[in-house]
Specification:
This protein is α+β, with helices and mostly antiparallel strands. It has one domain: minor pseudopilin epsh fold (3-Layer(bab) Sandwich), CATH 3.55.40.10. It is built from one helix and nine strands. The strands form two sheets. Strands 3-2-1-5-6 form a five-stranded antiparallel beta sheet, with helices on one face. The protein has a four-stranded antiparallel beta sheet with strand order 4-7-8-9, with helices on one face.
């Protein structure tokens, strides 16, 4: 009986060494996953906002009622105009008191920095707590910023968790004539 039987598994010591090594690798990788998630949060918010703007445009065309996006620093609230009982009377524009059809919340430290109607640098400070801008799509899909004159609509978004050199700044352009929405990864 000089032959040894094949080993059937690992000893408890070997298993514990493997568990310790896996724990060390997981601990080393956790900060990298957190940074990636933080960096993606701004991009995810900007992408979702661009999709919601496009959806608002299609909704305005389909329902033949203007749709407004109330853009705050930390969220976007979408509301439809209210059709009056008399179809000959124009619909009542949506206000903050009207029910929302959708609310898009920004993640921690991701902010809408500014809404402008002309190209150029955004404001030096983020929109305030109750300050907001209103983007409206009419029943044929055209867009405008309520109470601001100018051509073009530009929404600036900033992820304050990343440094400016590594990204974290997003820009949504809305064409006023067509209401088409595009997203850029810089401003």
């Amino acid at each position: 009986m000089g032959h040894r039987q094949a080993e059937r598994g690992m000893t408890l010591t070997e298993l514990m060494v493997v568990v310790v090594i896996l724990g060390l690798l997981a601990a080393a990788a956790t900060p990298m996953f957190g940074r990636d998630r933080s960096k993606r949060s701004g991009e995810d918010f900007a992408s979702q906002m661009a999709r919601d703007f496009q959806r608002a445009r299609f909704q305005a065309i389909a329902e033949r009622l203007p749709v407004r996006a109330f853009v705050f620093a930390d969220r976007v609230e979408l509301r439809s105009a209210i059709q009056t009982a008399n179809l000959a009377t124009p619909p009542t524009p949506a206000t903050l008191a009207d029910p929302t059809s959708r609310v898009l919340m920004a993640r921690d430290r991701v902010r809408v920095w500014d809404v402008k109607t002309a190209a150029g640098a955004p404001a030096s400070a983020v929109l305030g707590g109750t300050d907001h801008q209103i983007i409206e799509w009419n029943s044929i899909g055209q867009a405008r910023v309520v109470n601001l004159a100018g051509n073009g609509i530009i929404v600036y978004i900033r992820n304050e968790q990343t440094q400016a050199a590594s990204g974290g700044r997003y820009r949504i352009d809305v064409a006023p004539l067509t209401g088409a929405v595009t997203l850029a990864n810089a401003w």
